[in-house]
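Treating backbone geometry as a discrete language has practical consequences that deserve illustration. Part of our work consisted of pairing the sequence of a single chain with a tokenised description of its backbone. We regard such an encoding as a compact summary of how the chain folds. The amino acid sequence and the backbone structure tokens for this protein are reproduced below.
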Amino acid sequence: MSSQASTARQGSDSLASRHSFLLRGLLLIIVVGVVMSLGNVNIGAIGQGLGYALAGVCVFITYRILGFVDLTVDGAFPIGGAVCAILIVNGASPEVALLVAFVFGALTGLATALVDILFKIEGLLASIIVITGAYTVTLRIMAGRSNIPLLGQETLISRHSRPFRAWLVEQFGDGLKRQSTNLLEIILFGGVVIVVLAILYWFMRSEFGLAVRATGKNPQMVRATGINHYVMIALGLMVANGLAGLSGSLVVQQFGFADVSLGFGLIVRGLAAVIIGEVLLRPKSTGQLLIAAVAGMLVFDISRAWIFSALDLPTTDIQLVSALVVLAALGTPRLYERYKAYRQRFANTR
């Protein structure tokens, strides 16, 4: 009877957690919609957030699941973008370019894992070594050029742009014609993100995925069960940075060019996305945590766009605005905790 009661209680808690998560998600969508409407924020910010979303998931996997201090995302992202651009310029389809970008991003993560495992170099330093070398690798992939434009090339966006615009005008008139590209980006990138999250959710619940998650929580226990935890670390870093490479390929197709410095500071942006998602949605399960990382990246990009729109800032201020948004995302929870601790101390002294 006690076992049945415990199972029923766990099921009730899980259902309550899902309901709370859905309610917070719905409330977040409403608030973001109102902010975008009142702040005159272009919906292109949503498409850009979706382009970078998988980089946020990459940081979530390394930071939260593996507990591995990894900066490799700053190298895997531009490598994925460079591979995507060079393949498209040479006639490859955009879909093939996405898959190959994932593979090259995964190889970048494997390089960090090997430096950490073989040379016993701490993860942070190992990833710094890898991203330092990744700069040259990116230049080599781009044939020594720092920038590769995709003007006139077939990308995911350009392939569907004209028919989608024609359909949009036919169904809704000329009012949405100017937003056709932004809407197309949201649909295409949103579809890619949903498919990737579904595959990743399945992987995390598989035997390998559970071993990777256990490695981040308790490597000693994993070793005791006969599993090589080094292999699990390498697998986790490969999956995570493969997503960063895939994200880089999406952003390159969105921007219409690849640049060797495209991933500069992406690790901080990814951390901000993870924390924003966790603070706003308070996820409990693995699936909720993955969705929260994506939602955090969307909120980050929309917040940045809102600041630019509200203050009418020039585009040259983008790095400063990004730094301030990251500071707010990382610092606000800590200030709130200090405030609660102060209130508690004040209440105890009365």
